[in-house]
Amino acid sequence: DKLRLELAASTKSSEMQKEAFETQIKKDAENSEKEKVKLRLEMHTMMERQQEALSDDIKKEQLKSQELQELLIKKEKTMEKKKEEEIEAAIKEALKDAKAKHQAEIDQLQENQQLVMENLAKAIRAQAELEMGGQLRKSTRAKTSNAPRVA
Question: What pTM did the predictor assign?
């Protein structure tokens, strides 16, 4: 009987240990599952934060890119304006040079015209002198031809 009692007590004790062990396994499994869920939640939260941070970084980079594009457009316009100003200045300089050259040509033409007029006046004077000289000779000849000749 004693053996039976001991065997029964030992069996009961083993069953209780088994139940306690199974209960502990269940608790550990539940705790393990809770830990897994907790870890997954933490991972998910961390990933969401990283995604938000990346989204913010992307927005910042897009703003920088847009600012750079606007700056580039502004610089292109400035360069284009400067180029136009340089072209206008070159045109003005070319016009100034052309005007000066044209004025020099006009001055030269006026000088040539003055020389032509002077030469024409000289020619007319010479022509008049020739004609007058011819008439003077004729009248001198006439006077000398009427005069007696001495031989």
Answer: 0.43
